[in-house]
Amino acid sequence: MSDRIGNCRIVGEIGSGGMAVVYKAVQEPLGRTVAIKALKPSIAMDSQFAKRFEREAHFMASLQHENILHVVDFVKDGRSMYIIMEYVEGIDLYDLLEHSPQLPPEVASIIALQVCRALDYAHFRGIIHRDIKPANIMISKQGEVKLMDFGIARDETLSDLTETGTGLGTPSYMSPEQILGDKLDFRSDLFSVGIVLYQMVTGNKPFVEDEARTVMQKIRLDRYVSPRKLNPSVPRQLERILGRCMEKMPANRYPTTQALIDDLMEFLSPRVPMNYSARLVMYLRDVGLMTDNEADELLAAGAPRNVRRGTKDKRLVSHATWMSLLLFAGVVGGGGVIQAAAGRLGADREDFGAQAGKPVVPERAGYLRVVVDPWSDVYIDGQKVVTTPTAQAIALTPGLHYLKFSNPYYQELQREVRIRTGETELVDVTLEPLHVLEGEGEGDGEGEE
Fold first, then answer.
1. Residue 157 in this model has a pLDDT that exceeds 60
2. End-to-end Cα spacing for the chain
3. Are residues 324 and 422 in the same domain?
4. What is the domain-level CATH number for residue 217?
5. CA distances from 17 to 167, 186, 285 (A)
6. In terms of residue numbers, what domain contains 392?
7. 413 located within any domain
8. Residue 446 domain-assigned (yes or no)
9. Tens digit of pLDDT for each residue in 350-400?
10. For 143, which DSSP code?
11. Residue 294, domain member (yes or no)
């Protein structure tokens, strides 16, 4: 392998697949990092694989969307072909699921939503992906979701590169009509999205081969296990979205990709009242795929402009610091008054030292992180401190603190937490709705234990 391809200098190999190798490279005139997908030397230039490879380059070059991997250039030198693409620093969904097999429902839904936005853009242009699976979905460290690998995509206005009766794709993620080799439309991709979403929230594929049936037979003939049986925390609203995506008959699925996007947006709106990319960054940090410093730097960039620019004025920083200390002292002092009214200040000093109204001393401080599904106002010792979701680590004095989680549409929840010097406590809670939707409390067969 040459150390140069076109105007790009090869840095190293990223990965290898059945017919291509992917390299990391630097496009020297611009000094930017790119990824190069190179057709393997063993693939003949006049083969169907080579034609499919070149068609992928044309497809991806024609699709300019934030959720689709961008093609920078295409090089054909007589010996091989090379697709030069943007380089995404992050992890693909396949590897993420290997690391964390079950994702929080709102994180899984954000990923599915971004994939659907990419598909809606492609579907409007008559292009069907036909190979939606975790390995073809990239999640960047900036919280971006990118759909990759249009190698077997089909343009409805062009001839297909497969013969009638053959089904290209990955069996576990195929639609029933794709398995049968029927003519496909955008609804085949929606079935595959449903399978990926199911896998993200349950940690299992909905259709798995066994001694009785192959995976393709199960997709065509069998009903999948209810996701709530595998993970009771999956909301029923999301279960219904999954069910409609994975209807056996295309006519029973969503009528448009936009309709699926609308349902995912409706599901996410009350649960993630923040930038969706920021929520993905927070998740990557929480599972150890990003450092706190990497995540905090990105999340801080989304703060209000006056906060970001405040560091340029040293006096403003000084004033803000003193105001923060005074405000926090007021919060702690107010908490102390509430505790006194409740008769708690007569308790053991070690237990209730945190409520004595003293400012937090950095050398003795402990920290609290809160994760709430879907979201809430967080009260600490009677004072509202933050609204979730938040990446903030809250500094507290050592001792026992009283937490209250309040959301007008959910039942109020209270917790106690003991803070220790130099340690970070994580409190992760799920709120219960005030009113259960009609019929949800009754047994519905498959979805109930």
1. no
2. 57
3. yes
4. 1.10.510.10
5. 19, 26, 29
6. 316-430
7. yes
8. no
9. 333 344 344 566 778 889 999 998 889 999 988 889 899 888 889 998 888
10. S
11. no
